[in-house]
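Troubleshooting: if your tokenizer reports a length mismatch, compare your output against this known-good record of 590 residues.
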Amino acid sequence: MGIAETQADLMARAESAPETLTDGFHLLIDALKLNGVETIYNVPGIPITDLGRYAQAQGLRVISFRHEQHAGYAAAAAGFLTKKPGVCMTVSAPGFLNGLTALAHATTNCWPMILISGSSEREVVDLQRGDYEEMDQLAIARPHAKAAYRILHAEDIGLGVARAVRAALTGRPGGVYLDVPGALLGQVMDAVEGQKSLIEVVDPNPKSVPAPEAISRAVDVLKSAEKPLIIIGKGAAYAQCDDTVRELVETLGFPYLPMSMAKGLLPDTHPQCASAARSLVLKESDCVFLIGARLNWLLSHGEGKAWGEKGTKKFVQIDIEPTEMDSNQKISAPLIGDIESCAGALLEAIGSDWQKPSEEWTGAVSAKVKANVERMAPKLRNNNSPMDYQGSLGVLKELIAENPDVVLVNEGANALDQARSIIDIHKPRKRLDVGTWGIMGIGMGSAVAAAIETGNQVLAVEGDSAFGFCGMEIETVCRYNLPVCIVIMNNNGIYRGDGENWGGGDDPSTTVFVKDARYDLMMQAFGGVGVHVDNPDALRAAVKDAFASGKPTLINAVIAEDAGRESGNIGNLNPSSVVAQARYPQAKKV
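Known-good structure output:
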């Protein structure tokens, strides 16, 4: 059971202790432990400094970051990896706001997380008397969280924590805010009564079984498909019913596309994987089965040129949230329920005599996959200096294949887009990236959480711009001596390092960084291993050394300045300017 204590354990401890009183500090810690929390990600400060110290003294692991946003990203990633609420703890007002982005990130990604922030007293806040870091944090948090609560009395701490845990996990998971005024922590009450007030949440995420008629409808739609496609989303990876999902996909025999954090639920090398034929299957399919995936912007809302002729596709969708259905396209067969229950019911309904799709369809997809993989292969084997993305990521693809338990953390523009398509993932929940919001700066927080929660080697592939959002957390990686290898794809700028100042002045272009920056020396300054490489062979050797040693390592991988492109694969989201293209010749280059 680890450090978790049962209600009986807590009562026995309270009754045998010489003290007759307890306080808010210890009740909050006991409530978290009672509900299985083992790690807190935080930044110490007023009024939670001692809360972290007491938590550490009571056996919780408290990981202190340099910035609350990254502590929050770590908690969010922990929620995805463990299927339990990741806990982030911050100071009031500015610290709370720093953590709020991560809370919204967790809510948008449907990951369970609890943000606990110290705050000013209600009496002062409500009268706007100008207290230290005065802010109505509860009101600010509500639009960005699945739920938000404030605890005012020590006897309600158990109830508040229980409410937060259940809200974070029940139905569609999400981020929950828990407001803890500073005075609450110092409130005292009888120790035995305090332990009686704590609540261990029972069955916070019960099964949600789909209706039999919904299963029959879905089977009928799937049977009628001639060119079916499965899209697997990160919700399926979060569900941790890996065997059931694999059995369903293989029984149906449909080609499938994994979304980025669903990669590895079935290996990317699986014969049904159609990632290398994405354009073909999206355009030509006549029935799309969504498993834990949403038809949001990441899938172009299920419409547009990439999806072929409008109105030619039927959609079947599994989701725990009923309002997700028909959010962008008509869902012909909605399956409301948890993924394991829905997948299990489908397997039972289709039976052993299921007719897989025709060889004409699956063969065409396989042929396209084979052709595209063969066309890309030589590019992944080049040894150019400075490197391009294909040669450098080709090396990392090989090393991940040799070390499939490594957790890949990935962010950037080109570094993200190209790694997502080049590096195969072979096991579930071995890839963490920017998620639904496409947030830059998640890298180091996610890397720390992956190392802490899994104990596995972590490989963080970072664009040099993305790294700038979170780079100071390499000190955190070194301080806790975590097995994290960071590869910075350094092309001297945002998107590219060869931008020009359109005004012709002395200032660098808005997208250009200091030339030939030595990020590896930053890592050495904190006692980690820093390596500078400029060709794929050297990159391979450096990453192998990092994996063998398990030491905190940062590899400054020099990429050609012109290797990337504007905004990676989503440059279409940048509005264009006809006037700019007429006035500035440089605009046409970009």
